[in-house]
Amino acid sequence: MDADKILAIQKDIVRVLRNIYDPEIPVSVYELGLIYEVQVSEEGKVEVTMTLTAPSCPIADDIVRDVREQVAQVPGVAEATVTLTFEPPWDKEMMSEEAKLQLGLL
């Protein structure tokens, strides 16, 4: 797979991530700044590194599963895995301006 195809897949993945919401917060996981990295290999294997707003999030498994399943549906993705990390820890400064506006933080 060439670099242009990988870039196109990454853009499609970001578009999908912008439509996955934390059920407790009316903002997408992408705009919340929970997605740290999206890597796409030449074979179409995708590794998403993400965090949560808190390590004790009661719906962590649901959010991670939703991200993995939705990313796996993107055309060109052969396999999707999600790595959950808490380094660095999430804080509200990681949110996009749009997310801050939606939550009344601006």
Secondary structure blueprint with pairings:
Blueprint: H1 3-17, E1 35-40, E2 45-50, H2 60-72, E3 79-84, H3 97-102
Parallel strand pairs: 2-3
Antiparallel strand pairs: 1-2
Description:
The protein is an alpha+beta fold. The chain has one domain (3-97): GMP Synthetase, Chain A, domain 3, CATH 3.30.300. It has 3 helices and 3 strands; from the N terminus they run H-E-E-H-E-H. It has helices at 3-17, 60-72, 97-102; strands at residues 35-40, 45-50, 79-84. Strands 1-2-3 form a 3-stranded mixed sheet, covered by helices on one side. The longest helix has 15 residues, at 3-17. It is globular, with a radius of gyration of 14 Å. It starts with a helix and ends with a helix. The mean pLDDT is 94.
Number of strands: 3
- Average pLDDT reading: 94
Please compute the radius of gyration using only Cα atoms: 14 Å
Q: Percent range for helical residues?
A: 25-40%
